[in-house]
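Work Package 4 report. The design task specified in the project plan requires that, given a folded chain encoded as structure tokens, an amino acid be chosen for each position. We show below one input record used in the internal validation round.
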């Protein structure tokens, strides 16, 4: 009788990459190695650790099903007894990692999926135990469980894409989002919003008859000739620079010309936050760098390219700097790994060196083909492609059609709609090595697909539907 080898899968946020020991099944070798160091230099480091694709099995005590947990781009260290799971790498794949113990949560917030690892499709729920560290019990699977679809349910816990835990773009995006949250905390919406004529609160109306009453930026009312800046007893009076434009001054203007001047209003907001001109330039540079991504160098160097193409070394260097190499794998150090994941399909599709904006357009009625909406893809140079679909949850199917017939763009830009940024849509973009860059919240105009949808609705119905007397139920034919 076969005896399984069991181990613990421990969550470790200090490990920047998932690491697996001897009780895992290695599915394939990427051919790349790294040097792994400890938490201090005196411990030393482990040289030439392989980056591999590994799998462990989880036997669910509730459903009595076996789940094959497949981890891509992980470290394989045969001397380790247990495994280390990096929450960030799993969350990047869409796996939900709730790592707060139940005893540290309020009673009203405790739920079935608390303190567990879960996934929606396919359904997975692994309760975590607390033994010094948060962990779950797994075992080494068999090749029969790997090859037989009926023996196990396969769940991809990490992405096929190359994992770069120290990528500068990830840190810049996180810093920009954190800075945006800090601005919302320091300057609440009711403070930064300039009051127009109309209702301010239940008791105060701003208008021509309320010249002696205005709203202070801190939210309190000032009556008569009392000054909002007059200090109370014992307070320190701060002298403000008279050259600075403040929100308070703009709010007290009766003609509201100041708030209608975008540049003057932006200057007032920065002054309210205490941001200097150099600080504003720093914020702008961080936001700009957050939307850029460094190209990963391939395995073909200038010397090899000069030899293959029979060109000079300088020309080969310029060529390597100006181009990228996708789906590259080096098997020179592979030692008999099984079930190597092929990536040649990625090279069959065209690569587009430009960003593509996309959004969902909803029709006025259900079409003859049963479609209720359509995915709209657009570029800055007015290329538009429309793919009708039965529901917005089918957006990932339109992505397959776009990749096959048009190509894979350098990045996809959309709003934060779940059907365009999560689940199958996100998995397919990661598989194609096409990053998704969501636009900032409440900035829908930054998505060019919104403008295209507006023009499609306006000109589509005027020039196509109305002029040809086409029935409403064929709107999807006209769009495509």
């Amino acid at each position: 009788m076969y005896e399984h080898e069991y181990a613990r899968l421990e969550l470790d946020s200090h490990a920047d990459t998932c690491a697996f020991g001897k009780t895992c099944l290695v599915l394939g070798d990427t051919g790349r190695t790294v040097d792994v160091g400890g938490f201090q230099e005196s411990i030393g480091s482990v040289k030439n650790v392989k980056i591999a694709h590994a799998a462990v099995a989880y036997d669910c005590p509730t459903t009595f099903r076996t789940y094959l947990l497949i981890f891509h781009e992980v470290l394989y260290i045969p001397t380790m007894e247990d495994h280390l799971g990096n929450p960030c790498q799993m969350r990047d794949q869409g796996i939900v990692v709730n790592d707060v113990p139940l005893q540290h949560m309020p009673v009203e917030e405790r739920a079935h999926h608390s303190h567990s690892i879960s996934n929606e499709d396919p359904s997975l729920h692994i309760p975590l135990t607390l033994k010094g560290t948060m962990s779950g019990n797994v075992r080494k699977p068999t090749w029969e469980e790997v090859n037989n679809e009926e023996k196990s349910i396969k769940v991809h816990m990490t992405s096929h894409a190359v994992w770069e835990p120290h990528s500068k773009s990830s840190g810049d995006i996180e810093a920009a989002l954190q800075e945006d949250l800090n601005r919302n905390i320091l300057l609440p919406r009711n403070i930064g919003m300039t009051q127009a004529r109309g209702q301010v609160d239940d008791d105060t109306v701003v208008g021509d008859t309320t010249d002696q009453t205005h709203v202070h930026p801190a939210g309190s009312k000032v009556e008569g000739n009392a000054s909002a800046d007059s200090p109370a007893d014992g307070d320190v009076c701060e002298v403000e620079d008279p050259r600075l434009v403040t929100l308070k001054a703009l709010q007290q203007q009766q003609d509201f010309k100041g708030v209608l001047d975008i540049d003057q209003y932006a200057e007032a907001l920065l002054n309210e936050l205490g941001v200097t001109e150099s600080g504003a330039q720093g914020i702008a540079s961080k936001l700009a760098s957050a939307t850029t991504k460094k190209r990963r160098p391939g395995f073909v160097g200038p010397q090899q390219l000069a030899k293959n193409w029979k060109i000079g070394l300088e020309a080969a260097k310029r060529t390597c700097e100006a181009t990228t190499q996708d789906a590259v794998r080096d098997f020179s150090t592979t030692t008999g790994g099984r079930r190597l994941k092929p990536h040649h399909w990625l090279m069959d599709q065209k690569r587009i060196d430009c960003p593509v904006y996309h959004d969902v357009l909803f029709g006025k009625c259900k079409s003859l083909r049963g479609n209720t909406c359509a995915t709209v893809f657009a570029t800055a140079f007015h290329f538009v492609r429309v793919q009708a679909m039965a529901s917005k949850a089918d957006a990932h199917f339109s992505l397959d059609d776009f990749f096959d017939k048009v190509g894979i763009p350098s990045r996809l830009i959309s709003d934060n709609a779940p059907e365009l940024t999560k689940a199958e849509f996100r998995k397919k973009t990661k598989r194609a090595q096409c990053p998704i860059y969501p636009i900032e919240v409440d900035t829908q105009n930054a998505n060019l697909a919104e403008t295209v949808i507006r023009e499609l609705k306006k000109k589509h119905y005027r020039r196509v539907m109305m002029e040809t007397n086409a029935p409403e139920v064929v709107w999807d034919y006209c769009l495509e």
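The first strand starts at residue 6 and ends at 11. Validation will be extended to a larger panel in the next phase.
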